Amino acid sequence: MCGIIAYIGPKNAYQILIEGLSRLEYRGYDSAGVALLKGDMNIYKKKGKVQELIDFAEDKNTDGLIGMGHTRWATHGKPDDINAHPHFSGSGKLAIIHNGIIENYSTLKEALTRLGHQFVSETDTEVLIHLIEEIQERENLTLADAVRQALSKVIGAYAIVVMDKNNPDLLVGARKSSPLVVGIGDHEYFIASDATPIIQHTNKVIYLEDEQVVEISRENGVEITSIENELQTPVIHELDLNIDQLEKGGFPHFMLKEIFQQPQTISDCMRGRLNATEGWARLGGLEEHANKIINAPRIIIAACGTSWHSALIGEYLIEELARIPVEVEYASEFRYRNPILGPEDIVIVISQSGETADTLAAAELAKQKGALVFGIVNVVGSSIARMTDGGSYIHCGPEIGVASTKAFTGQVTLLCLMAMVLGYKKGVLSNTYYHQLIAELGQIPEKVKEALATDDLIKTLAARFENTNNALYLGRGYNFPVALEGALKLKEISYIHAEGYPAAEMKHGPIALIDENMPVIVIATNQSAYEKIVSNIMEVKARKGIVIAVIDTRDHEIRKIADYCIEVPSTIEPLTPLLSVIPLQLLSYHIAVMRSCDVDQPRNLAKSVTVE
Ligand code: G6P
């Protein structure tokens, strides 16, 4: 949420900032702005996307070998030009960009107002830069010292960069609960929310820790201190990320690219972890903790959004294959309800970005209470990945479309491997079933390819339903979370109201919504509750609902009764979500395109939700 990029070096900063902001746009796109320093500090900022800023700055002076840029997801203050970052201090000497929320901003604002400060925006961020300037002037401090002192008075979350008009050789950054990465190039340096805008310049990065302050000067390079001004020893990481992974690669949208990447990303997730020919599965990150997990009284999985849907599938997988009780929690609820947790418990946190504020806080809470915290994360080096006791990456590569697709199948693949490994080790998974799971999982990438071949049929269905106002998604067992995920995808990117429901629960409410205009998408690839699903479909048909069924190649009954059928390859039941979700991703994508929605950057959403 909110993207930050800053540059200091021998090149003109503007182009670097603009390219960086375009790469960070998935973090928020309510407004964009830059500050450039050459003699004067020029700030250009515009409501809307980065392109609006580019158009606005076209005839402006964009010189400066130092600068910073921001793309905003609005929290305090509506999205407009004035509330856009960067913000000036009262005198116009300092400027700031910020990701996060200053929770005590109104108290600080009142105190500063009493001292004569006047504010032009409604943001919490402007209060912070006034506070920094007030402290700097009152106590005659260096910029970094003033930042440190100001931050010690702040409650909330922040990743900030501050520039001083009188010092074109200095950038000061700091973080707490919002991510910040420092890039180290050849006599040039970057500060950014994540590595995506840095990678085209350098693969050497330092992840700033909470309550650390970074000073970057042309003369002394990078110096990192704690908020109490103790010198820190930074660790430089070399990233294995290439620029092609951040491009659309010929697809019209990142989301479509990411949907079609899934045969590859699922293979990548299993690489070195599953060998179908030799018949083994292992998960390096799990080995050290496997015995503790097997003997744990229960596992709690905490996550948000699509990752929460994978968590639900994880619950089914781990309970069935490893016979360990699992509870799934929304991270945002879990962290605030004083959960009963102890050293015996295992908490798994699932997060694509590894930065979601609520998931990170849930993990921190679990750690404080002594539980073992295991992370399932995509972004290497992210905050959650670094703070957990153990974990496994899903290795899907950067996911840029705001609606998650390949991360979902990566998470489910990983949870499946985890459940199999734990179940086998625990001795509750028979040798035959274990080897059947390995063989079937090995075939999943090819089967996902076949599922993707439904694309043309789905375009036809999308054209038929693009103007619907509502949709109901039904599934049972492993495919109940898939119903939730299908509905979420449709809501997120096409703004059609959709609900996911366990098929049998339909009778307790949603059935009242069904009439001849209601498309009901039934995920019907399960074998165990097949007859029950048939009955659920009949109940929908009896109320004139339009049934679109996702079936598998073995289906014999549903293809006769559904209005439309989408066929995916068959597999064993625990793996069906990896195939049944594919047509649902494609359906929401095509409907959104037909409705002229902004698929990769849907309104009001952001990819990396670093505020509560
Ligand atoms: C946002 C994104 C979703 C994502 C959720 C959790 O809402 O738009 O796509 O599922 O955050 O994100 P995480 O990075 O923790 O998986």
Summarize the structure.
The chain has 20 helices and 26 strands. With 612 residues, the protein is of the alpha/beta class. Strand 9 and strand 10 (189-192) form a beta hairpin.
Question: What do these coordinates show?
Answer:
This protein has 612 residues and is an alpha/beta fold. The protein is built from 20 helices and 26 strands. An 8-stranded antiparallel beta sheet has the order 3-2-4-1-10-9-11-14, covered by helices on one side. A 6-stranded antiparallel beta sheet has the order 5-6-7-8-12-13, covered by helices on one side. The chain has a 5-stranded parallel beta sheet with strand order 18-17-19-20-21, sandwiched between helices. Helix 19 (558-561) links the parallel strand 25 and strand 26 (564-568). Helix 10 (305-322) runs antiparallel to helix 17. 56% of the residues are buried. The model has no long low-confidence stretch (mean pLDDT 95). It binds 6-O-phosphono-alpha-D-glucopyranose. 6-O-phosphono-alpha-D-glucopyranose binds at residues 304-307, 351-353, 356, 359, 402-404, 605, 607, 609.
In terms of topology, how is this protein built?
Elements: E1 3-8, H1 13-24, E2 31-38, E3 40-47, H2 50-57, E4 66-72, E5 87-88, E6 94-102, H3 105-114, H4 124-139, H5 143-151, E7 156-164, E8 167-176, E9 181-184, E10 189-192, E11 204-207, E12 212-217, E13 221-226, E14 237-238, H6 254-260, H7 262-270, E15 274-275, E16 280-281, H8 284-287, H9 290-294, E17 299-303, H10 305-322, E18 326-330, H11 331-334, E19 346-351, H12 357-368, E20 372-377, H13 383-387, E21 390-393, H14 406-426, H15 431-452, H16 455-465, E22 470-475, H17 480-494, E23 497-502, E24 519-523, H18 530-542, E25 546-552, H19 558-561, E26 564-568, H20 576-594
Parallel strand pairs: 17-18, 17-19, 19-20, 20-21, 22-23, 22-24, 24-25, 25-26
Antiparallel strand pairs: 1-4, 1-10, 2-3, 2-4, 5-6, 6-7, 7-8, 8-12, 9-10, 9-11, 11-14, 12-13, 15-16
Bound molecules: 6-O-phosphono-alpha-D-glucopyranose.
Residues 304-307, 351-353, 356, 359, 402-404, 605, 607, 609 line the site of 6-O-phosphono-alpha-D-glucopyranose.
